[in-house]
Specification:
This is Beta-galactosidase. The structure is a single chain. The chain is mainly beta. It contains 9 helices and 51 strands. The strands form 13 sheets. An 8-stranded parallel sheet has the order 30-29-28-27-26-25-34-33. The chain has a 6-stranded antiparallel sheet with strand order 3-2-4-9-6-7, with no helix packed on it.
Length: 816
């Protein structure tokens, strides 16, 4: 590790770790032999899991890394930052015990300044334990948890080398509403804005230091917009000081989901000799937000309806061990899918995902880790510290508009889920982020006094066909947010919203109808400020052996019909550079043989759609305008009641069989041309289209001008394979942990995907990448997918696919 002239040096610490799944004694010692341990790059998961895992690896594992610190860094402060570790971490440096960190979703720092030896080998050792632990949030045992405790050092690790006179780390400093750099805004308008900056400086020198802080705002091109200098303050030896500065900006570029403009805040620390001892760059977005029942949600004084989804951080095979690029690719897909908001269900997610949300224009709510569980004592103390740490880490992200400080679906007062506890959580959040731009959110269900708990944005909840909370007589001035909808209400664990991508046209259409019907209902709710569907991407569940398949995207990030329904809700006049945006049209149909006249559903954000069959027009339609109707026999046998225990919640309701027909299928008439009047953009439903094999084409027009088109063709017999590498806006990085999905599409002679094809496909990879997980793999709806992970060296990658009876395919690309 070589020295640098920079005042602050951050080194990526992800490579060259040794790893073992075993609870080794004395493995923390510097001289402990790690022969036979696996060499890994971070982020890393302890075990490659099967695609349909429920009870994944739980237990002990160890990580060790040898490193050398150049003697030029003597006199500097050295910290190792773990972005997260699942979920109890013990850390040693050169055999010296440093700390225990409990919690799997937030960062922690280790000060190694006094522990390293310069110019020789040092060893950091980490022992991880992700077994069930009721004291560590979310706390619930894996076998009854609705997501997964995938283990490991699953986020980045960094080494920070800084001067003894430096800006502190926000989490490590441990100061309410303090530490690091804290940026807030006031008097925000298109004409001007006031940027309020607070900078916490620590002096670890043995003598007092005269200190000045220079704060500059740079535009997207790096050009100086405004700059200010603080007064010179004397910071005593071993002491600290918080500098407060105000910068006025004329004609600011405001951050908004449609125009996510980011400035860079450059903070420089200057000592009495004129030396820059530290500098820090923070991306910021200038904006102001508000929530109220009367005005709804506003951003920069403009009303905006929140159209969101939920996201788990999990991926097939590797669990939560995702690279920064992978986090960006997920955010991009959700943005392109028409969403402007993501609920990070149910825990703080990677900083890289929030960085992507800042950049792409996705608003977020960040929940404290929790799910149907509470316990007095250490658990609640960690919950309260989690709230502080997540706000300190993420308070400068413009994407962050709410802080969820209730434990998800946690109502049992006997376990400690009391009004008093959640009221304290609300107060902690406001202590950490003073002022009118802090908005707590949470669940009022089970609360005896919702007004006392005092969430700024209480969650609503479906009950039968009505959204019933918050109650007007209890919370008369507060709007509500629908945090989850579209899944459990349509049949519990047998929900008709839980549909794999290969389920076929009818089930995919029913899934899309469920979300359309629910979204239309939400928009008619006078309480609702917006909503988030459950869920954006399919994910594994600890309590259930099947993947939760209610996502708009499947676990391989391939879209279902409902993805295009949400995409049609985006504004056609908003265009983002290098992002799929603007006008769109999609035919939700496989166009295969049928015996009766077909109902063709088209999703589009255009004014009108024309449908052509084999080049001949079969109709031009405006958006559907039919009436709202009852969904049908929505009760499918489950007594859905969130006040009940887990065991009671899923019992069959007495006499519920009467609500099913003879086949047990819901009695629903989907896509009836109605249930759409509250939507931003209704679907286009074409009735009585007589099937004729060939090409079905849709043109979307705005103001009579063609803006978008889509074609679906009747698939012929499968002939060949075609490989598509999903880079998702970021090239595959040669860092040993980045990954992309490689899709082998089964095509007919015309290049149409044969959705009925389920061949077993074998992938072969040469060069600077490897396949992680299953191979060969069976195709689903005509596409077979593998996860392709980079090696830590740049170079060419050659991917070849084979399947019996099909022409093989090969593709080449380079990773950098």
């Amino acid at each position: 590790m070589q020295s640098s002239n920079s005042s602050r040096i951050t080194r990526n610490f992800n490579r060259d770790w040794k790893f073992i799944i075993e609870d080794k004694s004395v493995a923390e010692q510097k001289q402990f032999p790690s022969d036979g341990w696996e060499s890994v790059c971070l982020p890393h998961t302890p075990r490659i899991e099967s695609l349909h895992v429920d009870l994944h690896f739980q237990g002990f594992c160890w990580y060790r890394k040898a490193f050398i610190v150049d003697e030029a860094f003597k006199g500097k402060e050295l910290f190792i930052e773990f972005e997260a570790a699942m979920h109890e971490a013990h850390v040693w440096i050169n055999g010296k015990f440093k700390l225990i960190h409990k919690g799997g979703y937030l960062p922690f720092m280790v000060d190694i300044t006094e522990d390293v030896e310069f110019g020789v080998e040092n060893v950091i050792a980490v022992r991880l334990d992700n077994r069930n632990n009721g004291a560590i949030p979310p706390g619930k045992p894996l076998e009854s948890l609705d997501f997964s405790y995938f283990g490991g050092l699953y986020r980045n690790v960094n080494l920070h080398i800084i001067d003894k006179l430096h800006i502190t780390n926000t989490v490590y400093a441990g100061i309410p509403a303090g530490g690091g750099v804290f940026v807030k805004y006031s008097d925000v308008s298109k004409a001007s804005a006031t940027v309020e900056v607070q900078t916490h400086v620590q002096n670890e020198y043995a003598d007092n230091k005269d200190v000045q802080v220079v704060t500059s705002i740079l535009d997207k091109q790096g050009r100086l917009v405004r700059s200010t200098k603080s007064l010179v303050e004397t910071v005593i030896a071993g002491g600290d000081h918080t500098f407060a500065q105000i910068i006025a900006i004329i004609n600011p570029q405001l951050w908004h989901p449609d125009t996510p403009y980011l400035y860079t805040l450059l903070t420089e620390v200057i000592d009495g000799d004129g030396r820059t001892t530290d500098e820090l760059r923070t991306r910021i977005g200038i904006r102001t937000i508000s929530f109220s029942k009367s005005k709804g949600f506003t951003i920069n004084d403009e009303k905006l309806v929140i159209r969101g989804t939920n996201r788990h951080q999990q991926y097939p095979y590797i669990g939560n061990a995702a690279s920064n690029n992978a986090q960006y690719r997920d955010a991009l897909k959700l943005k392109e899918g028409g969403f402007n908001f993501v609920r990070l269900g149910h825990y703080p997610q990677a900083a890289a995902f929030l960085d992507a949300c800042d950049e792409l224009g996705l608003m977020t709510v960040e929940p404290v880790p929790g799910w149907q569980y509470c316990q007095t004592g250490e658990f609640q103390e960690i919950v309260k510290q989690n709230i502080r740490d997540m706000i300190r880490r993420d308070r400068n992200h413009p994407c962050m508009i709410m802080w969820e400080v209730s434990l998800n679906e946690t109502y049992n007062k006997r376990q400690g889920a009391t009004d008093e506890f959640f009221h304290e959580c609300h107060l902690i959040a406001h202590e950490e982020y003073p002022g009118d731009q802090m908005y707590t959110s949470g669940d009022t269900i089970g609360r005896e006094n919702a007004a006392y708990v005092n969430y700024d944005v209480p969650y609503t909840m479906w009950e039968d066909s009505n959204l019933s909370r918050p109650l007007e007589d209890v919370l008369p001035d507060k709007g509500g947010f629908d945090r989850e909808y579209g899944d459990y209400e349509f049949g519990g664990h047998e929900s008709t919203s839980r549909v794999p991508r290969g389920a076929g046209e009818q089930k995919l259409l029913l899934q899309a109808w469920n979300y359309q019907w629910s979204l239309n209902r939400n928009r008619g709710n006078r309480w609702s400020l917006g909503d988030a569907s459950w869920v954006g991407i399919d994910h594994n569940r600890g309590c259930y052996p099947r993947v939760a398949e209610c996502g708009a995207l499947d676990t391989f990030r391939l879209p279902k019909y409902v993805y295009y329904f949400y995409q049609s809700q985006r504004r056609p006049d908003v265009i983002h550079e290098q992002i799929d945006s603007g006008p769109m049209v999609f035919i939700a149909n496989e166009w295969t043989e049928r015996v009766s006249p077909a109902k063709i559903v088209v999703y589009s954000n255009c004014d009108e759609v024309e449908l052509l069959m084999n080049g001949k027009s079969v109709g031009i339609r405006k958006p559907d305008q039919g009436p709202d109707t009852e969904y049908g026999e929505r009760i499918t046998g489950y007594d859905v009641d969130y006040w009940l225990t887990d065991e009671e919640q899923h019992k069959w309701k007495e006499g519920s069989v009467e609500s099913r027909d003879d086949t047990g299928i819901l009695k629903v008439i989907p896509h009836d041309g109605g249930n759409c009047r509250n939507l931003d953009r209704a679907p286009f439903t074409f009735e009585d289209i007589v099937y004729e094999p060939g090409e079905l084409k849709a043109f979307g027009r705005i103001g009579g001008v063609e803006k978008s088109s889509f074609v679906v063709c009747t698939p012929l017999e499968p002939e060949m394979l075609f490989i598509r590498i999903d880079m998702g806006g970021k090239a595959l990085a040669a860092d040993g942990s980045d990954f992309v999905f490689a899709y082998a599409e089964i095509l007919d002679t015309n290049g149409t995907i044969v959705t009925a094809a389920n061949h077993e496909v074998t992938f072969e990879v040469e060069g600077s990448a490897v396949i992680v997980g299953e191979n060969p793999i069976q195709a689903e709806a005509g596409i077979a997918t593998v996860l392709l992970q980079s090696r830590p060296v740049p170079g060419e990658v050659i991917v070849t696919t084979h399947a019996k009876g099909l022409k093989s395919a090969v593709t080449r690309f380079t990773i950098v």
